[in-house]
Design brief:
Layout (H helix, E strand, L loop, with lengths): L2 E7 L5 H19 L5 H6 L1 E7 L14 E8 L5 H19 L9 E8 L5 E2 L2 E2 L2 H12 L1
Parallel strand pairs: 1-2, 3-4
Antiparallel strand pairs: 1-3, 5-6
Helix pairs in contact: 1-3
Length: 141
């Protein structure tokens, strides 16, 4: 049950590109979580893109666009190897969408937030990572 949120300056991406990223980013996240590619898991992978007003998101050095990607996953869902792969691929996804190259990679920050067990709820109940693992195993057959 991951969630991925991209924050960026307004008007950096076209509406079409934002819609494409709302498909790409959760797919990338599910891949690195090792979740099965099923309708159930895709429906639980949420993506939010927040645009801040012009001049509202920059560095102390310049006004070049910056991108912050916040990833929320259940604690234990990502090993160190999976975190590294996720960060690398999400950075590439954002750079490609913005028409930027690898030289601009420092303008993309990816922050992974691991939600402690027992603190994530959905459908009026606590969601346990162990339960999600069982669902994923069943979906793989």
């Amino acid at each position: 049950m991951p969630m991925i949120q991209l924050t960026l300056p307004a008007a950096v991406l076209s509406a079409e590109t934002r819609r494409a990223l709302q498909q790409t980013l959760p797919a990338t996240l599910l891949k690195w979580e090792g979740a099965p590619d099923t309708a159930f898991f895709r429906a639980q992978a949420w993506c939010r893109i927040d645009e801040v007003p012009d001049g509202g998101f920059s560095s102390a050095e310049d006004d070049l666009p910056r991108f912050r990607v916040d990833v929320t996953v259940p604690e234990g869902a990502l090993s160190d190897r999976r975190k590294e792969g996720l960060i690398k691929e999400v950075t590439a996804d954002v750079l490609a969408a913005a028409g930027l190259g690898a030289d601009d990679a420092l303008r993309v920050w990816v922050l992974i937030h691991e939600q402690p067990e027992g603190t994530w709820g959905a459908a009026g109940t606590v969601v346990r990572f162990a339960e999600l693992k069982v669902l994923a195993a069943q979906a793989r057959g």
